[in-house]
Amino acid sequence: MIDLSQIFYLIIVLVIAASIAGFAAGLLGVGGGLVMVPALYYAFTVLDFEMATKMHLALGTSLAIIIPTSIMSTRTHMKFNAVDFGLIKSFGIYIVLGVIIGTFLASNLKTANLVLFFSLFGFLVGLFFLFLKSKLEETEKNIPKIYKIIIGNFIGFISVPLGIGGGSLSVPFMRLFGYDMRKAIGTSAAIGILIAISGTISMISSGALFAKVNSPLSFGYFNLAGFLVFVPVTMLMAPLGAKVVHKVNRNLITKIFGIYLILISLRSFIEYLNIK
């Protein structure tokens, strides 16, 4: 049984995490899942949710939160003509297919393995933000269809077991083909809508059909309480982050975010060692 002081502390932690996630979603095009998942996992741990399903709940809830966050971020980027809907249409179906396969993987992995998976990926993305992103050229190239099929499936597949909107992969993917940074971020935000909607539906369905989730206010692998705490704050902060993209030099901010992700991934790895 948790007392009122613990509940207050928990809410403060979630609000701070939601603020960072929302701002990052708009600023970096990453959806905020890499921030939300560990915060939700921590909250579900404090609330004494079942070990077998709390990481799955964190992933499914994170994907649901990304839906309104990505919509708000995308709308802001559209005002700056920084969303390539043609690219999204050309490989969106492959992303959805990857999401379905990724849901099967996430549903069948144990909590410890999901935490380890998240930790390793977060560390690699943190390194990317620190060292690679600013060094890529910006001469936009045509993306071959075979690359769209492979990368689209991979982005969708990897996003579900990580509870992310795919921006950590789609932004580097577009940058490798010479997309302007701001256009890559704006398009990534729109891709996040597609991933988040299909991923949320699949995680709710998977949890409801194949798992017995007994945690309060949970429907399949989705927790309503976590959703209601995060959504208002992330929706407020996402447009702010998206506006900042088009006004300031982002190098320092991306490096700070990279350091933050590395610290989060290390903390997640410690958690993995504790529950292994």
What does this 3D model show about the protein?
With 276 residues, the protein is mostly helical. Helix content is 78%, strand content 0%. It is built from ten helices and no strands. The chain has helices at residues 4-28, 33-46, 51-79, 85-108, 111-131, 145-159, 167-176, 181-210, 224-245, 251-275. It starts with a helix and ends with a helix. The mean pLDDT is 86.
Radius of gyration equals 17 Å
Helices, by number, come to 10
Strand content: under 5%
Low-confidence stretches: none
Sheet having the most strands: none
Helix/strand order: HHHHHHHHHH
- Average pLDDT rating: 86
Distance between the termini: 25 Å
For the record, the count of structural domains works out to 1
Report the helical percentage: over 70%
Q: How would you sum up the global shape?
A: globular
Q: What class, by secondary structure content?
A: mainly alpha
Key terms:
single chain, 276 residues, mainly alpha, 10 helices, 78% helix, 0% strand, globular, transmembrane helix, TM_pro_TauE-like, cell membrane
Give the helix/strand layout.
Elements: H1 4-28, H2 33-46, H3 51-79, H4 85-108, H5 111-131, H6 145-159, H7 167-176, H8 181-210, H9 224-245, H10 251-275
Helix pairs in contact: 1-2, 1-9, 2-3, 3-8, 3-9, 4-6, 4-8, 5-10, 7-8
